[in-house]
Each structure stands twice: as structure tokens, then as C-alpha cells.
Amino acid sequence: MATPVIITVAITGALPRKKDNPAVPVTPAEQVESTHEAFEAGASLVHVHVRNPDESPGSDPELYGAVQEGVRKHCPGMIVQFSTGGRGRDQHSRGAMLYLKPDMASLATGSVNFPTNIYENPPEFVEGLARTMLEYGIKPEIEVFDLAMLYNAASLVKKGLLKEKPHVQFVLGIPNAMPMRPSIFNFLRAELAEVLPGATWVAAGIGRHQWEVNLLCLEAGGHCRTGLEDNTRFDATRLAVSNAELVTKIVDVCERYDRRPATPTEARQILGLPQAA
Asked: pTM for the whole thing?
């Protein structure tokens, strides 16, 4: 029997602006519509950024709430994951919407150089976000942009700030951070099994690496992330027409790896999340 794969769709991200790629959904209504199309194509988890009216990265809880409400209405059971990422947002605002209690939220466990800025996540800030997620019953997705972040996550488990068997995402292909090399991909998986046994995992390939990483994940038994957020960043070779197109591309090759898209119910079981009301 084919093994289910959770397909995460990162619908928007912080860049580029819509004028540079009209496919990027910006308003809550556009984001909900794009998510629904990806859901129908086979995605069971949506990673959400919001944008301000001027299309800059947003932090307004009302925007997050509108997207969450729309997804829960039109995509029954789909897992909603909010981004607490730092591009264009100050630290105080990055967790301001967590009181809305999404199913999941991203949690980068260290700082890393990006091409034009530092993605800054001081220890006290990371621990504060982790505590807030515990308080609201939100499952973190640990974002590993550099190797130390994996071991930082293991330390948070020991401190009781993360539950055991977390969900971890490896991010590969961002300039100045971890490059996309199969040897690094395999090393990260081996280290994960050693320091966080039982953890579930997914990997994101940025730009031109997106498809290569999708295939590695399918072959290695992990889960997949796709979407315009990653597809349009840095040195992408071709901009996708829609988020649904990118999800369909994964679905179409699942059988080759004896995989199949996880249903929302299965995805929640795999990640240890309660079933949707």
C-alpha cells in the first residue's frame, strides 16, 4: 500500500510583489482561493504569510484570521500553519497572531545570513515563541536553515519548550545558508534520527532546487513542500502559473515512489494533531 505524503503548499511568502509575478496571491480572498485550488490538487497543509495593502510583509492578526477562516470553511480539515518569519516584520509582531490558534506555526531555532540581511532569531525570542505555542496548543514546525538549528531544537525539547517528536523542515538552497547537495540532505536526515528520534520531517528546496528536493523527499520517505513562496525566490528557472500547478506536479509522480497524497485526516494523524471539528 502506498505511503501517504503530506504536501505543504507555501502560497505567498514575503517576496516578490504581485507585479513581478501575477500568480502570487496577496489579499486574503486571493490566498483562500489559491489555497482551495491547491487543496483540491492534493495539498493537506498550507503555510501562510500575509501582506499589507501595499503588498509589504504583514503582521495584522485580522489578515491572518481572515485567511484561516476562509481555509477552514473551504478546505475541510486542511492544516493551517502561520509563518512567524522575520522578513519585513519586527520581532514583537511576528507572534502577535498566535492567539488565533492555528494548527501549526513555523519556528526558526537560530539566526542565519540571508543574501541581503540577517534572519535574526535570538535565543530568548525563540524560547518566547515556543512558550506561546505551547500555551495555545500550536504545534511548531522547526525551520532548519543552518545545521546548528537542528541541535537547538533538541535543546528546546530537553528544556520542555518543545514536545518530543517534533516536525522539522530542512531549508536548502538559500544563498549563504545550507546549499542543496544530496550529501547534505542525507546527513541532515541521519542527524535528525540521532538527536530527535521519531520526529517527522519535510524539506524545502528554494528556487531552482524546489523540484529536486521534492523528488528526494518522496524517495527518502519524507514529506514535501512546494508553492510560489519558494518557487519565485532567488534563482528560480521557471515561475509557476499557480500553487495548484506545483502541487499537481508532485501528485503526478507520487506513484513512481510508491507514495500518495495524504488526506487531511491522515496528515493530522501523522503529525499528531487533533482532527478538525
From this structure: 0.96
